[in-house]
Amino acid sequence: MQAASQNQLAAYLVGVRVKRLSSLVWAIAGALAAIGGLLLAPVTLVDISLWYVVLKAMAALVLGGFGSAPGAILGGFLIGLVEQFAGVYAPDGTKDIIAYVVLIGVLVVYPRGLLGDAHGRRV
Amino acid sequence: VRFDYHTEYGADRALLRYWGERWAYGVLLAALLAAPFVLSKFYVGELTYLFIVCIASLGLMVVTGYTGQISLGHAAFLAIGGYAHALLLAAGVPFLVSLVLAGLIAGAAGAVVGLPAIRTSGLYLAMVTLAFAVIVEHVIGRWKSLTGGFSGVAVAEPSLFVVDLGGLRGFYYFVLVTLILVLLGLVNLMRSRTGRAFVAVRDSEAAAYGLGVNVAGYKLLGFVISAAVCGLAGALLAHHLKFLTPEAFNLMLSLELVLMVVIGGLGSLRGAILGAILIGLVPPAISALKPLLPTSLATQSGVEIFIFGLVLVCFVLFEPAGLYGRWLKIKRYFEYFPLYRRNTFRRVKSYMRSERYR
Q1: Nearest in space to B28 (alpha carbons), one of B277, B336, B232, B261
Q2: CA B135, CA B174: separation in Å to the nearest integer?
């Protein structure tokens, strides 16, 4: 998976089945998201606009940085905590946007996310 | 087969090089000029909306198609332009000045977003712009004293000097002229040093940097120009909607703009217009087709979004170069009639793909 994400062509040449792998990755990602949905269903209501949750999840992922599972968890915790605290302590209405403000702020300082892979720029 | 045979230097630089092109565009222009006198009011309004969307799509094309920076938040610039225009008009600023100021204000907002955004790239950048759009939408909704919040703000009727543009026809012509001016400006910009620098930054940042292109500066400039053009479109959209609410500039609009640019074909202004026309025509087409569908399907709420998604998926799968790429292929087929080779375009494609492996 890592090889295919870094360079598909090279991964293909060393015998990784890139096409099958990407199908597999989608399957795993879908299954994980479904588990998330199962756990979320008792907490919130289930309706069409549930896809807005994905935006928050993306924010969490980007906040933590790609290619880092601890980063995704850290980002998820950060977004969740910041939002809840803002709902209590910050003025009314900031709860909805505080996650995105934090996201922009963090990405300005750490353009690759908090725990993102810090390899140099490839040419 | 057409031969390039020019006797003057100016002929090489002309925007329309061949008689056929000049005829085609002349006929198109004449048709558009005559349209309000032939079509019914409904279609004139739809055409006006289509032109406004074309301007917005052109704006996004500058930053996504030419500079290679994805943005999921351009509805925010439309919103900023629209609200700035409405508020300036309410404050008594003349129409044209207010229109230009709306573009400049949106451009300034583009600089504010662009400064942090150019540090990031790829999906990170997409998230930053998306976050910006969400923030702007909420701020407009919450800042009741200025924007009227979710109850909205009314837009004054447009008037140019003494001419009243409030009528459908007058506004149609004004939007058409604006679209042509924006298009000409961007076409010339893309042929200039700046436009070439944009393309260099898109194709390879490192190579552009090595050739002495100020990468960060041009990325920022791309953002600013794009935001300013979108702000202008937003100001015109304000007149079309007549009443501004934050919901008019939600995430869906941003996504539609991205769809237009991708479906039209990244990296061509014609593509931006073709994509805008296609996406702009989908809702009327669906409502026209609805009576033909079985009632159980026609009354579903998500049909439009479903068709949007379907169109995008089909284009990415079958025509990655977009509408403009397909147009080029058809044109080339007839130009070189017996000698057309499919691989002319395949080579370009594989080159692009190898670029993606960077």
Answers
A1: B277
A2: 32
Q: Which H or E element spans position B315?
A: helix B303-318
Say yes or no: A9 contacts chain B, CB-CB below 8 A.
yes
- In angstroms, the separation between the Cα of residue B113 and the nearest Cα of chain A is 9
pLDDT, one tens digit per residue, over B268-316 is 888 889 989 888 887 777 777 777 777 776 666 677 777 777 877 887 7
Amino acid (1-letter code) at residue B153: V
User: What whole-number distance in Å separates Cα of residue B335 and Cα of residue A87?
Assistant: 64
**Cα–Cα nearest to B226, from B176, B259, B269:** B269
Q: Which of A8, A96, A112 sits opposite B357 (nearest CB)?
A: A8
What was the ipTM of the complex prediction? 0.78
Task: Give the residue from A94, A91, A58, A86 showing the smallest Cα distance to B135.
Answer: A94
A122–B contact, CB cutoff 8 A: yes
DSSP state of B160: E
The tokens of B75 are what? 């509805």
Alpha-carbon distance B232 to B55, whole Å?
8
Beta bridge partners, B159, equal: B164
Q: How many whole angstroms separate alpha carbon B96 and alpha carbon B158?
A: 9
